[in-house]
Amino acid sequence: MGNIFIISNNTLALAKYNCAIKVEGDVGAVFEAARDRIYQGAKLISHPLSGSVKPNQGPYKSIVLSATLTDAVDITSLTLIEQAIATLRKLPVLHRQYSELVHQDFQVVDLDLLDSAMKALTNVECRI
Predict the structure, then answer these.
(1) Cα first-last separation, the chain
(2) Quick one: angle between helices 75-90 and 27-39, nearest 10?
(3) d(CA 125, CA 19)
């Protein structure tokens, strides 16, 4: 498959994967960072809306993209990330104050989804 990298705001994912790029901010910031990379020629490898946690409920997100850039924008990847951004914008903004334990739980859920995606990939190298 080639080279991949991860866009994430999850410190557990950043600590585990040396090809993870840190994004400051919320899930929307992760989606926008992924969209920017897609415009640069990357392709989505994992779906931005994976898992059962709605993007306005969980504060952490990790997305796998191809590190091998193409000259053209991948329309399928762009459509998926734009739909994820639109879905997030449609949902109400939740102003919940989560405890540290709940934040840790959200990080573990995101990391588990990321680990599942990574295990499903074959013949890839994790690089920035």
Answers:
(1) 15
(2) 160
(3) 9
Give the SS3 label for residue 88: helix
Cα Rg of the chain (Å, integer): 14
Contact at 8 Å (CB) between 45 and 116? no
pLDDT tens for the chain, 128 residues: list them: 469 999 999 999 999 999 999 999 999 999 999 999 999 999 999 999 998 888 999 999 999 999 988 899 999 999 999 999 999 999 998 888 999 999 999 999 999 999 999 999 988 888 76
From 66, 72, 64, select the one nearest 48 (Cα to Cα).
64
For tokens 């897609």, what's the residue?
A: 38
Q: Are 63 and 6 in contact (CB under 8 A)?
A: yes
> What does each C-alpha distance from 56 to 6, 11, 126 come to in angstroms?
20, 19, 28
CB atoms within 10 A of CB 71: 5
| pTM (2 d.p.) | 0.93
